[in-house]
Amino acid sequence: MSTPYILVVDDNPANLKLVAYLLKLGGYDVGGATDARETKRMIAARRPDLLLLDLQLPDADGLELARQLKSDPATEDIVVVAVTARAMKGDRNRALAAGCDGYVSKPIDTNTFLDVVGEFLDCVSPRQEMR
What we know:
Blueprint: E1 5-9, H1 13-25, E2 29-33, H2 36-45, E3 50-53, H3 62-71, E4 79-84, H4 91-97, E5 102-105, H5 113-121, E6 128-129
Parallel strand pairs: 1-2, 1-3, 3-4, 4-5, 5-6
């Protein structure tokens, strides 16, 4: 079995660096993007096994990007997990309604993050909130 490829999308360099570092420690192959345009380009070049998507991007709403990916037959089956500081009532439901397969709130728990990622890669039931 090949090493899972995870694409992390976050416009905050510190967040992107932390998540990528943790994933690399976990043995994953990791790519990083900072906006929706770059994300689409990277997906076209190499399809990720998992997309960790910040919902606040400089050039597009992450929810809209999730909708676009899930409505395209070429990308609809990519597992998309919202990783966001949006933690207000209803944000989780909005992310799931946009097509995200899961929701992780920031700040991430560095002690459990790799377990959460592993669960999504092991085909956890869609539409679950992971903490």
